[in-house]
Fold this protein.
Amino acid sequence: MYESFIGLEVHIHLLTKTKVFCGCRSAFGDEPNTDVCPVCMGYPGVLPSLNIEAMRMGCMVARAFNCRIPEKTWFERKQYFYPDMPKNYQISQFASPLGQQGSVDIEGKIGGKYIKKRVRIKECHLEEDAGKMIHTGTVSLLDYNRAGVSLLEIVTEPDMETGEEAELFIHQLRRTVRYLGVCDGDMEKGSLRADANVSINFPGKGLGKKVEIKNLNSSRFVKLGLNYEIARQGALLDAGKTVVQETRLWNENRDETQSMRKKENAHDYRYFPEPDLPVFIPDAAFLRSVDEAMVELPLERVKRMIAEYGLSEEQADLICEEKAQADYFEAAVAEAAAGKAAERGLSKKDAAARIANWLLQDIKHILGREGIELRELGSFRLNPKRLAGLVSMSAAGKISGKNAKQILEAVIKEDRDPEVIAKERGWELISDPAKIAGAVKAVAETETATLTEARAADDKRRQTLTAYLVGRVLSATGGRADPKIAGKQVEELIRGE
Ligand code: ADP
Ligand code: ZN
Ligand code: MG
């Protein structure tokens, strides 16, 4: 067995409206080469200026990963030539990135086993993205809309050991940046991309020769690519060979990594401070604005929701997958525990258990069927108040379970309150004991023989006869008597009370 070391470099597109050093629109899917200007095209004599929103979002991520934000942060030029980069250098951060030396815990199930692990974050730095090259059969086309778009790179220390852990890290990072509202996390569109570094070595020998798998655009490929590499490198060491330090690519058609270029030991990028941008000093006012924009992070929220609502870990994790869903859930629970249900004794935990069930089963099914995204829950017709109303009626025995499901559908279809629908359709159960007593009395008069038998019968037979009599009471009320109350009254009748 060998020890393995995995470090990730994750790039995220920040959701700034404009690019990081000019006023061009930052958008995906615009007509090629329309979101460009002399600054992002690198014309001589132009001056970049920092988009403060990008700096703020970057610092939010730094905070989320417990990084230190330095007293001064600045930019460097990273020189290299590539056609997708019109300036022939990229403005990036090198000596004093905006976030330094943080750490984050990854937690979750891997193959049925719960794992918790601390991953150190080396740094978070802000830079500009390059343009996009589209290779056709004979020519390569260039779209510079992406050139200059705000990109944040998050670099971990080599603290992970398996492809599964790396996948979990990406999943957690993605959920975090989406909660913060700084990135849409869409790996297919390239808003979140990862380079995965991996080496193996004999136990106790420390880091091995690293291989970098570049440009992974799905967390599954991160996992597959890394596990493939760990096996490939292991076979090399088994055979007494050495691993070559190089950059490889994941070939998704062949499920293997392939060599892209042998890495000359560290590129000489000739970094030097960007002379056209001033040093940025995150002053108290700026840091306050960062802190004010922070939200409760997903993992903290999962833990709080387990403690506060008595949810299972799995339920809390599913509900917290999207911030909009967690917000919806908590709003509905607050409504249910504050409303009429509370007067009838529906506690917060009881309300939460019922709402979690609705949300993760029937509502989830309906959202899927109607093609509604979780983030659209804010404008869903079944708003938290209506869901709370439905749950409260159901918990109080005012409607049957079957009717509750029909009301759920009707609320969504008709955009009306559940109470109104229940009343209008005559689906409100009769819960007034006096009204039910009337029906019980009528049944007693016609079922004297059954009653006599029930009184003399053994437990089992008596239960059968009780169920029969309750059924008679329910049908006498058109199925609207609350079955619990009817049952209680029938039992009393048999006991002769
Ligand atoms: P480079 O200068 O080649 O970009 P860095 O030191 O910046 O290397 O590290 C880049 C990434 O590679 C980081 O995520 C780091 O954790 C990881 N890394 C560095 N050395 C190794 C190694 N020997 N094995 C595995 N991962 C490594
Ligand atoms: Zn521009
Ligand atoms: Mg590096």
Summary: The mean pLDDT is 93.
